[in-house]
Design goal:
The protein has about 140 residues and is mainly α. About 70% of the residues lie in helices and about 5% in strands.
Amino acid sequence: MKSLDDKIVTLENMLADPDKLNKALYEIISAGDMNNDDQLSRAEFQKVLQDFKVGDFDAVDDLFTSLDRDMNGYINFKEFRHFFRAQMRIKLGHLKELKAVKQKAKSKSKAPAEEQSSSSSEEEPKKKFGLGFKKWKSTRN
């Protein structure tokens, strides 16, 4: 499985190289284009998404409707590319946020360990024998 950094680099490279992205998208459309008209009908689009394990019919239908910008009943290469690039940018943003959160959590987990190792030998007996705690006061009258 790819690491988070690998996924980020892959997406950045795909977005930076339009020819590579166009080729990948054209291959996806061509694989689903059963009648070779260089566009996807609703049925062809559903088949492509099923191949990618997206099977919710209502979601696929809504997605098709939103992608068919010229409302001709087909998704052409330009419409598909517009959608795919937007999704890649969103995914890239999410991956970068996830990486930042993981790095922040990692740095926080290191900080307490460093504090514990640097505690003075004088504090250890207080913790061990309960000598450093404030006296408990009763709230009863």
